[in-house]
Structures are given as C-alpha cells and as structure tokens.
Design brief:
7 helices; flat; mainly alpha; 2 domains
C-alpha cells in the first residue's frame, strides 16, 4: 500500500493539473484558474513540509489532524515571505496589492497577522460557510482585517 502522504500529494497534483488544463481551455477564467493552481501548489508544498517534519502524523487517510491548523509561528514564518511573493505574482490585483503592502511591513506585521488568524474562531458547522473555499475567504478576510460583504 502507498504512503498516505504520497497519495495526498497525488491528489494535490491532480487538482493543480486540472486547473491548468481548464485555464488553457477557458480563457475567460484563466486568471482565476492559474491563481488557484499556484495557490494549490503552495499548499501542497507546505503540506509536504508538515508531513516530513514529523511534528504530527496524518491519519490513515492522509488528512492532517485539525490541530495542525494551528501550526506554530516558528514553522509558518519562513514560509510567509514566499507565500506573499506568490500572492503578489499570481493573485488578482487587489490581493497582490495587499500582499505587497504586507511584505513591506516586515516580519513583525507578519507575526501579528499569523497570530490573529490562529486566534480567530472557526465558524460553526451550522454557519453559512459550506465549503473549503468559503473558509479560505474567511481566512483571507481575517488577514485583511475586513468583514465580507453581507456577513
């Protein structure tokens, strides 16, 4: 049987490849799909770093336990500048501008942002958040310090 981390990596790779295929097929959605593929590739790399660190083992299905959503700042800080660079390079204009401004503020601001995201309570399952995308938007809003329209 394959290693759960390898199986999970293959799932990440399928998502990345599918987004790239769709980006080539649908020019009107290219910017979003390229951004999604780059964001997913970044997430995959962080996932594999967590797996290889041995800090916490994944479950039998290769999914990281919930406690890893609260990774230490020491683990996240070296990964934050490359994350901001990716957002600047691949993100929509507003997000790219936000990433650029945050990058210029330096490590103390990054620590503040990461700590505030870690402190943020996750929405209750009965809330209006029904998908991973909704949760990602909420996390980005926490980083930006803004509430979503209509929330």
């Amino acid at each position: 049987m394959s290693d759960p981390a390898q199986l999970q990596a293959k799932q990440w790779d399928r998502r990345i490849e599918r987004a790239r295929e769709l980006a080539a097929e649908y020019p009107f959605a290219r910017e979003l799909l390229v951004f999604y593929s780059e964001l997913t590739a970044f997430q995959k790399d962080v996932y594999l770093d967590v797996q290889s660190s041995g800090a916490t083992a994944a479950g039998n299905d290769g999914v990281l336990p919930l406690e890893l959503e609260r990774l230490s700042l020491a683990f996240l800080m070296p990964r934050f500048p490359p994350f901001l660079s990716m957002l600047e390079r691949e993100g929509p204009a507003t997000l790219a501008g936000f990433a650029r401004a945050l990058a210029e503020r330096g490590p103390s601001a990054w620590t503040e942002v990461l700590a505030s995201v870690q402190r943020r309570n996750e929405p209750e399952p009965s809330s209006t958040c029904s998908s991973t995308a909704d949760l990602s938007v909420l996390r980005l809003e926490a980083i930006g310090g803004r509430a979503a329209p209509g929330r």
